[in-house]
């Protein structure tokens, strides 16, 4: 029996102050704040406006390249404000994951993503990396917005 197995005292209390029975603490790892998965999925869903515009024929609404640029800017601003103003615990990781999920879902929405990926796997990697970097840049800006709000 280890010290973590001892439970002297009332239920819900640990025999050693500051310790818990979480797998991270049992392995000696620091506890991390949980990710907000509903928010991450919602952020990825917001970005799906881009392929949706293409599917329904609205990509030429303001002409090219204006429509794709406006969509990119609008989604980026929405991501930065939603994460930066709500005090999300891990803004960079949150938006990197949103970018990754967006990339994966948009490839499926756009058609048969794997026929081209098998022929050109570099293209698949390029799409994934582009959207991950997009999420990372937005995450850094959201984190900066959080710091400015805390300081002010």
TrEMBL record:
Annotated segments matching region Disordered: 1-27
Presence of keyword Transmembrane helix: yes
Keyword set, alphabetical order: Membrane, Transmembrane, Transmembrane helix
Transmembrane segments: 34-53, 65-85, 92-110, 122-145
Domain of life, per lineage: Bacteria
Extent of Basic and acidic residues compositional bias: 1-11
Protein name: Uncharacterized protein
Organism name: Actinoalloteichus fjordicus
């Amino acid at each position: 029996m280890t010290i973590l197995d001892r439970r002297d005292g009332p239920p819900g209390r640990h025999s050693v102050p500051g310790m818990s029975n979480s797998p991270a603490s049992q392995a000696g790892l620091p506890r991390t704040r949980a990710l907000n998965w509903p928010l991450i999925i919602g952020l990825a869903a917001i970005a799906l406006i881009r392929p949706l515009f293409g599917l329904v024929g609205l990509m030429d609404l303001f002409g090219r390249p204006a429509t794709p640029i406006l969509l990119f800017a609008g989604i980026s601003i929405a991501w930065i404000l939603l994460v930066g103003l709500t005090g999300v615990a891990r803004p960079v990781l949150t938006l990197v994951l949103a970018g990754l999920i967006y990339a994966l879902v948009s490839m499926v929405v756009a058609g048969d993503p794997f026929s081209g990926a098998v022929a050109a796997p570099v293209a698949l990697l390029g799409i994934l990396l582009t959207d991950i970097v997009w999420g990372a840049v937005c995450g850094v800006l959201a984190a900066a917005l959080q710091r400015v709000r805390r300081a002010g």
